[in-house]
Amino acid sequence: MLGRVNHIAIVVPDLGKAVASYRDTLGASVSAPQSLPEHGVTVVFVELPNTKVELLEPLGEGSPIRSFLDKNPSGGMHHICYEVDDILVARDSLIERGARVLGAGEPKTGAHGRPVLFLHPKDFFGTLIELEQV
Ligand SMILES: CC[C@H](C(=O)O)C(=O)SCCNC(=O)CCNC(=O)[C@H](O)C(C)(C)COP(=O)(O)OP(=O)(O)OC[C@H]1O[C@@H](n2cnc3c(N)ncnc32)[C@H](O)[C@@H]1OP(=O)(O)O
Ligand SMILES: [Co+2]
Fold this sequence. Notes:
Layout: E1 5-11, H1 15-25, E2 29-30, E3 34-36, E4 41-47, E5 52-58, H2 66-71, E6 76-84, H3 87-96, E7 108-109, E8 115-119, E9 128-133
Parallel strand pairs: 1-5, 6-9
Antiparallel strand pairs: 1-6, 2-4, 3-4, 4-5, 7-8, 8-9
The chain binds ligand LZKTLF4L and cobalt (II) ion.
Ligand LZKTLF4L binds next to strand 4, strand 5, helix 2, strand 6 and strand 8.
């Protein structure tokens, strides 16, 4: 079922500072910020040879990462995104195997314009998993 790691996501309290740190201190190539109100986040991607790092800042009221940031005010690792060939096949098989798919179970369009789903962190050793169809 699982393909490549598409990205590792880090929630940050100040996206501008995080971009400067990755760009200027770590010398990395960082994309322009994307505001995703439907997801309640603003994101940038740090391009790496074998995967990406997604830096996330809460956007607006009701952001799903606000509570995470309240608990981790300096920021922290938030989720890992695995690629899948067919997100609906993956979803149905995961539900059949007892995993909880977050939201209404219907894929949303992610930052890359592709369908994504999230799996409950409590089902996977305290790790929030995102699946992205590629
Ligand atoms: C899709 C656009 C973009 C992309 O890549 O394309 C993104 O990745 S957007 C990313 C932001 N969106 C999401 O994260 C959507 C899915 N997340 C959620 O629905 C929530 O964050 C949820 C349900 C995982 C947690 O919500 P919340 O923190 O408000 O709930 P609780 O405080 O009740 O948490 C329940 C329980 O889970 C623990 N928790 C929460 N977040 C994480 C996490 N990221 N990793 C590990 N564990 C997490 C939290 O501590 C609670 O544990 P407990 O022991 O019960 O205290
Ligand atoms: Co993500």
